[in-house]
Amino acid sequence: MPITLSRPLLILFAVLVLFLSLDGLGDRKLANPDEGRYSEIAREMALSGDFVTPRLNGLKYFEKPPLQYWATAITFRLFGESELTARLYMALCGLGCILLVAYTGRRLYDDETGLLAALVLLSAPYFAALNEIVTLDMGITFWMTLTMSSFLISQCAAGETSRRRWLGLAWAGMAAAMLSKGLIGVVFPAAAVFLYCVVQRNFRLIAQLEWTRGLMIFFILVMPWFVMVSMQNPEFLRFFFIHEHFERFTTMTHRRVASWWFFLPILFGGFLPWAVSLLPATVSGWRASGQLDGQNRIFSPLKFVLLYCAFILVFFSNSGSKLPAYILPMFPVLALVIGVYIRNIDAKRLAWQIAPVFPVALWGAYAAWLAPAKKAAEDFSRPLYDEMSLWVISAALVVAASTLIAFFVLRHQRKWLGVLFMSIGTMIGVELIERGYEHISPLQSGANLAKSIRNSLKPETRLYAVETYDQSLPFYLRRTLTLVNYVDEFELGESSEPGKWISRIEDFPAAWSAPGPVIAIIQPGHLNKIKALGLDFEIIHQDPRRIAIRKLSPS
């Protein structure tokens, strides 16, 4: 039975979404590598005032465009540097995705579909987890969701003026996606349009995309930064477009190799409460009839979405570089597909589709109970994993209980109540896991290392990272470090500014012996190697992953 959403219910839903999006942003220390890396780039940008050339640890860094750096740097300037402000842009982008999906479902279908789609996305564990982690993927996901939502609405708009307005917003969203993560912000929507035209055997859609106005919007937003950064950094164009796009896709240069099916468990596990529903929802969405716009043109929004998602999945599955978060842009629009499916499915059938979540959750609780003994390799980390394990077990049991309740409620044909139990139980479970993750943050973050170093740090102290680099350490120290015999992602920056690093470990003793206080970060396994260099030092911090040494003052 369709529901009518009252204003109080909508307000309550909005408050719930806002709370889940922003709660706990500042509770965890920044984790390595991504959170430390992208927060530090924004910190250096805010400090220097240079919003054209991104820098990481003082070196040029052109792996990604600057939109997220800009947003976070401005946030730092307005509200200060902290874990909360570092994660705020990602949380707002996640919140934006949820609201966009709800609004798109409402515009294309009805209030019920919009709310169901939003609940599906809110309760997708993978999306919820990345909503509070500093990566570039939630930003690109928001702007691509804006592009897709605007395009879908434009194709079902009642009038020409409305259609053109929504298409203009789609072009603007594509420009922001390009400024977030590069060419995929253009390639994915373009591929979806082309594939849809091929499948429908009708290419008139391509001619109706407002090319003149759209390209003007796109280039006005995109070109200024690309022109300025290229003029100031001649090495940018080749590195960004060839190395970071074509070589990343066609080669294994970035050492992120995985099997072709790598993303399938992430996709289904990421939609866990609705994983079984995903396949029939896909089939149903593909078969769904099209909708008429104000000019009696037929458009099938769900088929378009599925072609978009299929291209993303195939594209990254064939890439030479794979990371789990690459497919995150699929989640918001797939939530719309699942929301439409749940809207139309019988409640009893939905009950059996969520039933497998119960044994999966119980298995998760058992695995979490065994995990500390398997994961903790030393005495330092065992108590941390023990504490996290309790939170994960609690999360799994909450999800199991909510699944059991939702199953019986759905069996009694109370679809909305069952969906709410399933969704809220999963949201609580994700929140509990995030709370548990806070307990292992000393292993993942350089915050404690920075605290030990600050006790010995003076303004004139020289800092070195010897054959290692802790991504979050500069953020917590509010200082950059001189790299010693360490390249990795700094290859372009080091070759552009060779005076800012020490390329050979044999040259390090001279830098160490120069007048003034010195602190260096090394890996625990390299301690004897450093001793063999004949350096006089004392250890000021040691954990399983890092050691900090300080030069002894002459007696």
Give structural attributes.
single chain; 555 residues; mainly alpha; 3 domains; 9 strands; globular
Task: Outline the structure in words.
The chain is mostly helical and 555 residues long. It is 64% helix and 6% strand. Helix 5 crosses helix 16 and helix 14 crosses helix 16. The longest helix has 30 residues.
Would you summarize the structure shown here?
The chain is mostly helical. The chain contains 26 helices and 9 strands.
Outline type: globular
Number of domains: 3
Strand residue percentage:
5-15%
Taking all residues together, what is the mean pLDDT?
92
The whole-angstrom Rg is 25 Å
List the strand order in the largest sheet: 6-5-7-9-8
- Alpha carbon gap, first and last residue: 84 Å
Q: Give a short account of the largest sheet.
A: 5 strands, mixed
What is the total tally of β strands? 9
User: Which percent range fits the helix content?
Assistant: 55-70%
Low-confidence stretches: none
Alpha-beta classification: mainly alpha
Topology:
Layout: H1 7-22, H2 34-48, E1 55-56, E2 59-60, H3 67-79, H4 83-108, H5 111-122, H6 125-130, H7 137-155, H8 160-181, H9 184-200, H10 204-207, H11 211-232, H12 236-250, H13 263-270, H14 275-287, E3 291-292, E4 298-299, H15 301-317, H16 330-344, H17 347-354, H18 357-375, H19 382-411, H20 415-437, H21 441-444, H22 447-454, E5 462-466, H23 473-477, E6 482-484, H24 491-496, H25 508-513, E7 518-522, H26 527-532, E8 537-542, E9 547-551
Helix pairs in contact: 1-4, 2-3, 3-4, 4-5, 4-7, 4-16, 5-16, 5-20, 7-8, 8-9, 8-11, 9-15, 14-16, 15-16, 17-19, 18-19, 19-20
